[in-house]
ABC transporter permease subunit
Amino acid sequence: MRVLRRFGGEAIALVLAAVIFLVPFALMLLTAVKDQAQAIDLDFAWPTEWPVVRNLVDVVEARDFVLLRAYVNSTLVTVASVALIVVFASMAAFVLQRRAGRLGSVANFLVLSGLIIPPAIVPTIWLLQALGLFKTMPGLVLIEVAFNLAYAVLLFRAFIAAIPRELDEAAMIDGCTGLSLFFRVVFPLLRPVTITVILTSSVAVFNDFVNPLYFTPGDDNATVQVTLYNFQSQYNTQWNLLFMDIVLITIPPLLLFIFFNRKIVAGMTAGAIKG
């Protein structure tokens, strides 16, 4: 009886997952391969024509190949942001874990505040303007790092808690101190959680829509998510091109998740158990 209940619960969960995730994905794919007239219906009807190549070319060539520039911008922002997140979060987590005290408690409170308190758009724009970084890619990189740093610090700290302090002491006896101690001894041991942080942060930064929209307006600094506006207007929306654009944007994160989902789960689970 218990086996039947467990099997029934798993079957219900699979059905719900299919309805929540696969049905919208199927609608997106069907609409992306239709012509503009049939795509307006937004239904699951089979396409009468298959203008796949034409839709793909129209999406790529829209607004002087803005999608290609957006892919380059998104790639640069993602790589730079994730690299800084990994370095800063791992170093901060190591210090917070190894040096407990009042200052550490304040730092922990600030880290948790970064997860709880929503970002303020207007003050952030004022700050970027004062620094001369508004509407620039370096400014967007700093924004992505700031907004994703707290989550990465928590993951790294949970993993570092399992590394014995005796290892630090042995390395210090051998002459390693400061950055040498961290990068030569501790950081290589963080490989599982580092992979998790890289994958989760990459998907979050690549899929970010709000920050590029507010902080880097304009086609020159457009990211892939902002290109969704290319096919929408006040009076008309080209649903077939819009969904084809969504398909092209979804492919990189989807492939990343399919091939590395086990590493993501393994890194987060290891950190939770060791913390």
Observations:
- The chain has one domain: 65-274.
- Residues 32 and 244 are 4 Å apart (CA to CA).
- The mean pLDDT is 85.
